[in-house]
């Protein structure tokens, strides 16, 4: 064999053995509760694929092998995806393409991350990565009022079972209420519960009534929804008013009407006392 024959062989074979991923299809956003998702890795192996063709899927980097297919064998599901994959799913009838894709049944939020498809032969390799976020818009989302004191109302907005990290904002006349207090908790499954409360004084409401809006946002999931509540100033507290009515003083309210009200209360007590 002379050198030119070697050379021609190399050129021809570098074509037939090349592997090339045309397109990787991974849904960027998946709502929790979705029945199934398909991760696909569409590749070319040339006319005659080189020996040692292997299709692998990794999760969050090269140490997280989750799926491997060596045609014509059956595909294998490994680690994180074990028990989550439809083993009968075939994306193509072509023997060298059939099991390149993964159909994940009912994906959970813990499957959020980077998915990498690697197609290789003994001498060539190509890979591509896409991320998938399985988000949870929550199980319950409420915006309620707690009317314990005259002249004051507590707005309470609660959303549960969210993923990823949520942002909860109470809007008054379209602007976020800066004095609102937010409490965020994460359970052992990584799901968030968030509660935002705001104390509103009747003096803050300049119209006969005001509609407050609580906005729930999952920034990474592009998800936004809201709830509203309408407050009418001047309503009496809904329960145990006679005990609770003294408390506004603790909230440093300095309106004269509030002081007047407390004076009236004291007068009332005194008059009852002296009557007895
Ligand atoms: C996922 O991919 C993004 C963007 O490529 C990267 O910034 C991030 O570090 C990756 N995360 C992991 C866990 O590999
Ligand atoms: C995978 O990576 C994402 C960030 O890209 C991270 O939020 C997630 O916790 C990682 N998942 C696991 C199981 O390591
Ligand atoms: C979120 O929405 C913005 C604007 O509509 C868009 O550019 C971005 O790609 C979206 N992100 C995802 C993950 O879909
Ligand atoms: C609240 O949701 C409604 C309906 O989805 C939308 O029309 C409105 O703009 C939202 N309000 C705010 C303040 O985000
Ligand atoms: C307290 O009174 C001052 C002066 O009258 C007023 O500017 C301020 O807004 C009041 N604060 C509250 C919490 O009502």
From TrEMBL:
Instruction: Fetch the InterPro entries from UniProt.
Output: Ig-like_dom (IPR007110), Ig-like_dom_sf (IPR036179), Ig-like_fold (IPR013783)
Q: Which residues form the signal peptide?
A: 1-18
Q: Which spans are transmembrane here? A: none
* This protein's UniProt keywords: Signal
Domain Ig-like stretches: 35-135
* Name of this protein: Uncharacterized protein LOC111348380 isoform X1
Organism of derivation: Spodoptera litura
């Amino acid at each position: 064999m002379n050198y030119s024959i070697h050379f021609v062989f190399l050129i021809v074979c570098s074509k037939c053995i090349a592997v090339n991923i045309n397109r990787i299809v991974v849904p960027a956003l998946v709502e929790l509760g979705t029945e199934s998702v398909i991760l696909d890795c569409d590749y070319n192996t040339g006319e005659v694929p080189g020996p040692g063709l292997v299709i692998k899927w990794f999760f969050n980097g090269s140490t997280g092998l989750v799926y491997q297919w060596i045609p014509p064998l059956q595909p294998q599901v490994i680690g994180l995806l074990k028990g989550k994959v439809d083993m009968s799913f075939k994306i193509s009838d072509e023997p060298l393409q059939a099991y390149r894709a993964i159909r994940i049944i009912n994906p959970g939020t813990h499957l959020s991350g980077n998915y990498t498809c690697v197609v290789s032969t003994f001498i060539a390799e190509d890979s591509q990565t896409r991320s998938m976020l399985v988000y949870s818009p929550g199980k319950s989302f409420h915006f309620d009022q707690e009317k314990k004191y005259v002249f004051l109302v507590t707005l309470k907005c609660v959303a549960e079972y969210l993923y990823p990290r949520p942002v909860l904002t109470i809007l008054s006349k379209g602007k976020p209420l800066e004095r609102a207090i937010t409490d965020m908790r994460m359970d052992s499954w990584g799901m968030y519960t968030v509660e935002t409360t705001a104390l509103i004084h009747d003096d803050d409401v300049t119209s006969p009534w005001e509609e407050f809006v609580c906005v729930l946002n999952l920034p990474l999931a592009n998800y936004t929804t809201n709830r509203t509540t309408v407050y009418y100033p001047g309503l009496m507290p809904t329960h145990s008013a006679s005990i609770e009515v003294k408390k506004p003083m603790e909230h440093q309210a300095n309106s004269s009407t509030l002081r007047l009200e407390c004076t009236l209360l004291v007068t009332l007590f005194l008059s009852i006392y002296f009557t007895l």
